Amino acid sequence: MESTITQIVFTISPIINALSDTLRTVHTPHAVRPPPRSPTPWLSS
After folding, report:
1. Which pLDDT score, from 0 to 100, does residue 22 have?
2. What distance in Å separates the CA atoms of residue 10 and residue 6, rounded to the nearest whole number?
3. In a 3-state reduction of DSSP, which class is residue 15?
4. Per-residue pLDDT at 2
5. Of the candidates 16, 35, 14, the residue with the CA atom closest to the CA atom of residue 24
6. Is the CB of residue 8 less than 8 Å from the CB of residue 2?
7. Over the stretch 5-21, which tens digit does the pLDDT of each residue have?
């Protein structure tokens, strides 16, 4: 049973890594781009 779980983990891990890399590539440009206005205007006052 433990060997089966290990095989499943090793099979799913590359898929999860690929998905996380894709999500990171999609979200990074939005995170790097500065916001149009300050999200916390009360701190600048």
Report:
1. 85
2. 6
3. helix
4. 81
5. 16
6. no
7. 999 999 999 999 998 88
